[in-house]
Specification:
Elements lengths: L2 H17 L1 H4 L3 H26 L7 H18 L4 H23 L5 H19 L1 H6 L13 E3 L2 E3 L4 H24 L1 H11 L1 H6 L4 H27 L9 H14 L6 H15 L6 H16 L3 H16 L1
Antiparallel strand pairs: 1-2
Amino acid sequence: MGLKQMAFTIGIAYGIMALLPIFVGDIPFIMNILVMCLIWAVVASCWDVMMGFAGIFTFGQVAFFVMGAYCSAILSIDHHITPVLAILISGLFTAGMGVLVGLPCLKLAGPYVALVTFGVHMTLQPLLRGEIGIALGSGGAGGLLTIPPISIMGYIFSTENIVPTFYLILVISLACAFTIMVMIKSYWGTAFLALKDSQDFASSLGINAFKYKLMVFALTSFLTGIMGAVYAHFYGMLSSRMLDLDLFSILMVMILVGGLGHFPGAILGAFLVVAGSELMSPLGAYRAVTMGAMVVILVLALPDGVMGLYLKRSASKAAVD
């Protein structure tokens, strides 16, 4: 997909989102769903960049999201740092953690990278609940319940002012999406794809695998941490239960529905999956079963996701013309 076509798709998706509060702005339940769509769209896109473009099978994206959330919350609560500054610091912190996790992973390949990053995911929950986490200010098993909302020039963005807060998060999410798009369509993205297809051939062309893989770890962790921090200040509470496999599985479904390696498919997948999951909440225990069945059918019918279908139709139309 070309840069203009990619930018047009992102613009249409976020443009539709921007118009929705005009019709549902007075319905808090739906507005909360829209906010979650914006947050998870970035997290899913970062994971898609790692696996679909760089070819790094990492399972640590949720861990970086939680790291960013807790870091910003602790800075705001215990160290009285303003939420805006805390969010930026959290992004830098998760970028650093991404580099630390990425360093040993660069010497591994395939499933071994997945095991290492999943190990980070699995060890983070007991760490936050344990004595070390409590000493750092994580709140232990009880989590954090008094996270201050984002405040800019005296105006407070919280769930009580849901519409303005939605537009603030929309701007942040859109900025992250365009950052990912520019990265993919730049020399970095070409290097990622070359390393994914054939690392030996890419290295013979002068592409430094160590440098570019470490860069993708840092950038995706930075953006994921930013959205984790935004999540924390929006809801005002955190729990280590976010590291349960439910969220991990739903994020994977978003990528598959959107189309792995077909950015901005992950954004569309996040919008569809989050909205569909929340709207099916009246089904109770049958929601997970229904979602699972729908995903199986969709993956079988559209192995490249909704974005893959769109690209195929565009290619067929261009061939006919």
